[in-house]
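#structure-requests
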Amino acid sequence: SDGSPPASPPARRAPSARASKGNRMASLIAQEEDEREDDADKEFYEQDFWADAEEDAEYAMEADDEGADSFDSDFGDSSESDGDDGEEEEKAARKAAKPKKRSVYVDPKARADKQAAGEGGAGGGSLAIELGREGARLTHSHARQHAFVLQTLTLWREIANDMFRLWHLAEQDLLDPSNPYEQRDTGQGLQRVQEAPRTRAALLELLRATQLKASGGWVGSSLVHLGDSNVPNALLFIDKYSQVEHILNPLLATLDALPKLHADDQKIGAWIDATFGGVRALTRAILRDFFRFAFDGSGGDNFFDAGSCIDGRLTSAWNWCSQLPEKPFYIVFTLAASPRLTEALAGAEDSRISQGRIAFTGRGPEAA
């Protein structure tokens, strides 16, 4: 109002505690990958393929005999002798008595890679997704989906880390008299659609920094929705990315609570063992479902509204949360959010149970 230039945005703050959520999810992804490798190594050593050396030698001898026979058939009777008929009968009897062994060793890692590519059925611990199956709008192998999830969580961490500066820039964009808004129906009701150049520039800066850290190349689209029908203005951008912690907190709270749930209640422990195969198997099932279907491009009617774009990744995570009551492990989330367990873990370091209770009851801190 006094004609003075707008205040410059504050310098970027040091990483806050909120960034630890992204670190925690990234470490869980890495742990899942390590466990998958360990299981493959264990299966390798359990095969005892070296114990079949004698059968391998026999197979090699049969292969040499077949090669000699093929040579004879192609180039005449150069290797025939009077005793060939007896040898042929002996070989035929040996083959009939025991089936030929084509291979002794099966590489478990190669089989896991085949499953991850969608060629081996359910795939066990694979994160692979396929367009049109189970609601997915993307097709990723296990390795590609792993990179996609890790890069997305890293970007969310960078945004959460810089939220104070982004909020300041968003207010400048919203209140800039030279940047008017347009009120129109975006498909989500009447919205004030307004460009947000300052906020967009800061977001692109964070995106570029994340892409530089990505090993193996960036997976998915780099399109940023801001000032359009998907994210009409800077205020909705701030609101949308403020929800990341409300998506991750209940998940982390539940995973933290599983060992205590299993140990403290005999009936619940027996149900977890019978239904999911134990705490570790249940943890893997929850994380696998989240890493696959919270990052599968779903949540929109078209690839402009959802998919692999920067905004669409968060849309897919929202969509996964809306489908959580249909998951077989949903009851575990409600048990982890119970007041009794919340009080029991109230003094535990890094406990996230209270946040999970707030998120799943739909009540804010005041009501809780």
